[in-house]
Write a structure and sequence with these properties.
- The protein is an alpha/beta fold and 412 residues long.
- The protein has 15 helices and 10 strands.
- The chain has helices spanning 50-58, 71-75, 126-129, 141-154, 171-182, 209-219, 234-242, 254-258, 271-274, 276-285, 290-299, 309-321, 329-332, 337-362, 394-397; strands at residues 39-41, 63-64, 78-81, 88-91, 96-100, 116-120, 160-167, 188-195, 224-228, 249-252.
- The strands form 2 sheets. Strands 2-1-10-9-8-7-6 form a 7-stranded parallel sheet. Strands 3-4-5 form a 3-stranded antiparallel sheet, with no helix packed on it.
- Helix 5 (171-182) packs parallel to helix 6 (209-219) and helix 11 (290-299) packs antiparallel against helix 12 (309-321).
- The longest helix is centred in the C-terminal third of the chain and has 26 residues, at 337-362.
- It starts with 38 loop residues before the first strand and ends in a 15-residue tail after the last helix.
Length: 412
C-alpha cells in the first residue's frame, strides 16, 4: 500500500536531526479487529485436526478453529508437551483428545495454549445436542449468554471470547439472540447461515446476514460478524465481504475439509499428489493419531488435471485399508515430516513479517509543531496508533521469555 505524504513540519530533536518515531505498543491478544477482513478455518469434528489447521495457515487462513470440545473432557485431561516437536497434547485415558502447537498461536503471550475460546452453538449433530450442547443452546438463550458472561468474567482479558450460532426460524428471533450475545462482551459472532434443521446440501441463506450486520452496527457495539456457509475459497470470501452482505470476515468448513489449500488464491490441484503425501508426512512427524490422519486424507478432493480418477480412487483405497503409517511408505516417500513443518514455520513467519511491514508503511510519519510556535508538542509525540501487531511465538523466535512451551531443538 502507498505511503502517506511526508509532513513538512520540522521534527524536534537535537540540532534539528530527525528522530525515528516511537514504536507503537503491541497488543498481545485478539481484539474485535482481529476478526475483520479475514478468512477463517471453521471448527470441524475430526477434520479440524492440528495438521489440517497448520496446512490452512500455510495456505493463507487468518485464524483457525479447533474441533468442538466438551469442557469437562478438557478439565480432566493431562497436558503434555513433546520436547522434540513442541506439540502440546491434552491426553484422555486412551489418546490425545486435543493437540495444538505454538505455531498456531502467532500472538503467543500468556500461559495459555490458545488465543481464544469460542462457544459452539451451531453444531446440529446428536452427539452434541443430546446433552444440551451445540445447536441445542439456541433454544436456551439464558444458559447460552450465561456461559459467555462467565467465560468473559473468569478468563484473562488476553483470551478472546466469541460465539458461533445458526440462524433462528425468523429474523426477529435471530436479531434478538444476536443482541443478547453481543452484550456479553464477546469479540465476534459467527453466523452459520442455515437453521438448526437445515442440512449442508441446502443452500445457505446468506442474504439474511445483511440485516444482522446492519443491526449490530446500529447497536454501536464493537463486535465483528463472521459469515459461515457455502464459501468455497478466497475469491468467494472476497465476494461475500464486499457484497451487500458486508460480513466482517468469512469462515470456511466443507471446502477446507476437501482441500485445506482453499485459503490460497491458487489452491492446489491434483491433491492426491500435491497435498496428501506431504500431509501424511506432517501427520507422522507431529505424531497425529493414524485414525485421524486416515479420516482427513480420505476427505481430500479437488480439481484434477494430471491425476486420473482411477489413480485418485486407488490412492484413497490404499490409505483406507492401511493399518498405520508404515503401510503407505511407498506412497509418501521418505518420512521428511520435519521438513514439511519447517516449511510451514517459514511461511507463517514470512506472512507475519509482511503484515508488519505493511503496517509500518501505513503508519503516518511524526507530525510536530515547530519549536517557535506557541504550545509546541512534546518531543516524544508521534503518530497515532494504527493496526497493532503482537509478538511472534517462541517456536519461531527461539525465545522462551513469553512462552511456557519448550522450544524444540533445531528450530532456533
Amino acid at each position: 500500500m502507498s505511503r502517506r505524504p511526508i509532513s513538512t513540519s520540522p521534527t524536534p530533536g537535537p540540532q534539528g536531526d530527525s528522530e525515528r518515531p516511537p514504536k507503537r505498543p503491541r497488543i498481545d491478544h485478539l481484539t474485535p479487529d482481529s476478526f475483520r477482513n479475514g478468512i477463517f478455518l471453521a471448527p470441524m469434528v475430526r477434520s479440524g485436526a492440528l495438521p489440517t489447521r497448520l496446512m490452512a495457515l500455510k495456505h493463507g487462513a487468518t485464524l483457525v478453529w479447533g474441533p468442538e470440545m466438551v469442557d469437562k473432557a478438557i478439565l480432566h485431561a493431562e497436558r503434555e508437551v513433546d520436547p522434540v516437536t513442541g506439540v502440546i497434547s491434552y491426553n484422555g485415558k486412551s489418546r490425545a483428545m486435543f493437540t495444538t502447537h505454538p505455531l498456531e498461536k502467532p500472538y503467543l503471550y500468556t500461559k495459555s495454549d490458545v488465543s481464544g475460546v469460542d462457544l459452539n452453538c451451531g453444531c446440529p449433530k446428536p452427539f452434541s445436542t443430546h446433552a444440551g450442547m451445540g445447536a441445542a443452546l439456541l433454544t436456551n438463550p439464558d444458559l447460552l449468554c450465561g456461559i459467555l458472561e462467565a467465560l468473559r468474567r473468569e478468563l484473562p482479558r488476553e483470551i478472546s471470547v466469541s460465539a458461533k450460532i445458526r440462524l433462528l426460524p425468523t429474523q426477529e428471533e435471530t436479531k434478538k439472540l444476536v443482541e443478547r450475545i453481543a452484550r456479553t462482551g464477546v469479540n465476534a459472532i459467527t453466523v452459520h447461515c442455515r437453521t438448526r434443521n437445515m442440512r449442508p446440501r441446502e443452500r445457505a441463506l446468506v442474504e439474511r446476514l445483511k440485516e444482522i450486520v446492519e443491526f449490530v452496527q446500529g447497536l454501536g457495539l464493537d463486535v465483528a460478524i463472521v459469515q459461515n456457509g457455502d464459501c468455497t475459497g478466497r475469491e468467494d470470501a472476497k465476494r461475500i465481504r464486499t457484497s451487500p452482505v458486508s460480513a466482517d470476515s468469512v469462515m470456511i468448513a466443507t471446502a477446507a475439509e476437501s482441500n485445506p489449500s482453499c485459503f490460497s488464491a491458487t489452491p492446489l490441484r491434483d491433491v492426491e499428489s500435491t497435498l496428501s503425501p506431504s500431509y501424511v508426512r506432517l501427520c507422522k512427524y507431529l505424531d497425529n493419531h493414524w485414525a485421524s490422519t486416515k479420516f482427513c486424507v480420505t476427505q481430500f478432493k479437488g480439481t484434477r488435471s494430471e491425476v486420473s480418477k482411477t489413480d485418485a480412487h486407488e490412492l484413497k483405497s490404499r490409505i483406507a485399508k492401511a493399518k498405520g503409517y508404515e503401510d503407505i511408505e511407498d506412497i509418501v516417500g521418505s518420512w521428511t515430516g520435519e521438513e514439511e513443518f519447517k516449511e510451514i514455520s517459514q511461511i507463517v513467519e514470512a506472512q507475519a513479517e509482511q503484515e508488519e511491514v505493511a503496517e509500518e508503511e501505513d503508519m503516518p510519519p511524526p507530525c510536530a509543531t515547530p519549536p517557535d510556535r506557541p504550545n509546541p508538542e512534546p518531543p516524544t509525540s508521534g503518530a497515532p496508533k494504527m493496526g497493532l501487531r503482537m509478538p511472534m511465538p517462541a517456536i519461531l523466535t527461539g525465545s522462551n521469555m513469553v512462552s511456557p512451551t519448550p522450544t524444540p531443538g533445531g528450530m532456533r
